[in-house]
Amino acid sequence: MKAQCYLLHFDPPYKHARHYVGYTEHLAERVEHHRNGTGANLTAVASAAGCEIKIARVWNNATRALERKIKTSKHHSRLCPICNPHATRRGQFTEEK
What global pTM score does this model have? Predict the structure, then answer.
């Protein structure tokens, strides 16, 4: 199975955080962990605070290097089609071939 990098959107935002970036080979299971509070610390507290956690974007055939590149970019709202309708047209981060 190919790995995926994903961008989660919190609605409403949790304090200063609106997004979470992650990496997995089992997206549906991993997102369910985030939603039920057993995922990353940020998603656990966001879920407990009543934030809806939506899958905003997925990069297929991803690597850990892509996840790191996205996480360190610090401009997740530019990549989020919920926050920015033009995000899917940007070629900033592309899937690995």
Answer: 0.87
